[in-house]
Amino acid sequence: MAVGYFLDVHLGSDQWGFLSNIDSKVILAAMANNILDKNFQYRNKYTGLGYQIGQNPGIINDDLYYDKIWTDSIESQLSNWDGKDESLIANQIWDVVFASPRNNIQPSEGTINNKGGYVFWSQDLEFNIGSGITPEDMKDQFSGMISLLWAGRKILGKGFKIIPVVSNSIQRNWDGKNDYVDIAELINTDLQKLNLQKLPARTDGRSWNLMSFLRESKLIDGFIGEGYSPANIGQLDHNSAPFVPHQNIPYAVMGSWEKNLKNASTPIQSDYWGSLPANAAAYFSDESAASNFKSSSFQPVKKNLFAYNASALQVQNDVQIVDLSDLSADERSLVKVNLSRDANYTVQAGFYSVANVQGSVFDPITGELVSPGDDTYERAAMSSENIISQLNDLSLSENGVLNDDQVHELSRGMIAPYVRILEPGLERTYFSFSEANPDKMNHFAQLSPNSFGIEDTLGGGDLDYNDLTVSLEFLDVVAAG
Predict the structure, then answer these.
(1) Predicted model pTM
(2) ∠ at Cα 379 (377, 383), nearest 5°?
(3) Residue 4 φ/ψ, nearest 5 degrees
(4) Where in the chain is the domain with CATH 3.20.20?
(5) Tens-digit pLDDT profile for residues 87-138
(6) How many alpha carbons fall within 13 Å on the CB side of residue 239?
(7) In this structure, is the dihedral angle defined by the CA atoms of residues 37, 39, 42 and 46, taken in order, positive or negative?
(8) Which helix (H) or strand (E) holds 473?
(9) Residue 196 carries which DSSP code?
C-alpha cells in the first residue's frame, strides 16, 4: 500500500528533513528544484533517495486560481495563435501560469531512476468561487485548466505522469450556481485549436466528467479526488459528473488530516482503482502533523469508477433508479447485493426494468408504455419480461445483515427497486414512484449512491426507511460472456 502525503506548506532548504520520519516515499507538494542553484535542488535530492514527487507548482497569483489566468493570460495566447506551432503555444501558456523557474518541471525528471524515484505532475486544481463569480467565469476556469494540462502534456511528453488533485466542485462540472458546465460544448468553442478528443453525447443531457474528457485526450494518467466531508470520507463526491465506463481511469482519494483523519479511531476505507504512485492520500497544512501520521490509517478498497456512475440519475433526479444505460450492448456490469433488515413484517425486494426516469414500463402484452398511476402498472412492472431475475426475491428471514458474495451480471438499461409486503392480510407491492403506490407516497429513500432504504408500512409508518435496506456493490464492467 502506498499513501501520498499532500503538503500544502512552503518549506525552506533545511525543512524537508522530516520526510525521513514518515512511512511513505510519495510526496505531493511544491518542492523547488532550480537547476542553476544547488541550494534549491530539493527534488533532485529526494528523487535520488527513491521518493516519488508529485510536483504541485505555484501559480503566478495563488489568489486568482484559474479564472484570471484564463481570461487575462491563456485566452489571449490562444486567440492570437494560428494553430500551427503547438510547442510554441504550449510554452507560452506554461510561462504565463508558472512564475518561478524553481517550480517548473523538467521533462527528464519523469524518468524513473535506479532508486525508483521520479517526478510526476500533480497540479492542485481548484476554483475561485468567490462573490461576483458567474457561470461564464466558471466556464473560463474550466477552459484555463484544460489548456494548462494540454500545454503540460506537450512540454512534458507522453511518458510523463500527469495526475492532478481535483476538487469536488470540478468533479461535479459545477458552474457555481447549482448547475453544470457542458464540457463537450466548451471544447467545441474556445478550445477547438487544441484538437481535443470528443466523447459520445449522453442520453440524459448531462456532460461527462471533466476527467473523462482529459483522459480521452491523453492529458492525464489518472487523478486524485478529495474526500473531506463526513458524507464521503474515502470516496469521491457522490454528486460527481458521470465517468465514461470503458475508460477505467486510475484514481485515488485524498482525506484531510484536520477534518477526518486526526480523530479517526479505525483505519479509513479509501477507494482507488488502477496503478498510481499512491492508492490513498492525506492532506496536511503543516509538516509536524504529517511526520506523526501513519499510512496504516488507511485501508484502500479497489473500486471501479463505474460504482459512481451507476448512481448518476438517482442523485440528479432524486428518484431511485440505477442507470446502466451507458453500457454498450456487449458490456455487463458485475454487482453484489448486501441486505439489512430491522422490521416486524416479512418483506421481499427486487428490481425491474423501467423505460425512463419517470418510471414508465413496457406492457409485455400490448407493447405500450405504462406510467406509474395507471391501473395496469403493477401487472406490467412485475411481469417476467420486466423483472430482473438476478435481483429478484431479495429478503432476510430475520433482522440482521447479509453480505452476499454472489456476483450478478447486469446489462444495459435502467432499473428501479420494488418491495413486496408478504405479511398475511397486509400483502401489497410498493414502488419508488409515488403514483404507483396505494397511499401515493414513495416507500424508498436514497441512503447513499447505491443503497435504498425501505419503509414497509402503508402511509409511511415511522418513516425510518430501515425496514429493509438494499445496497448494490458495483465491481467492474466486463465484456458479455
Answers:
(1) 0.75
(2) 120
(3) -90, 140
(4) 3-309
(5) 999 998 888 888 666 667 899 999 999 999 999 999 999 887 777 888 888 8
(6) 15
(7) positive
(8) strand 468-479
(9) P
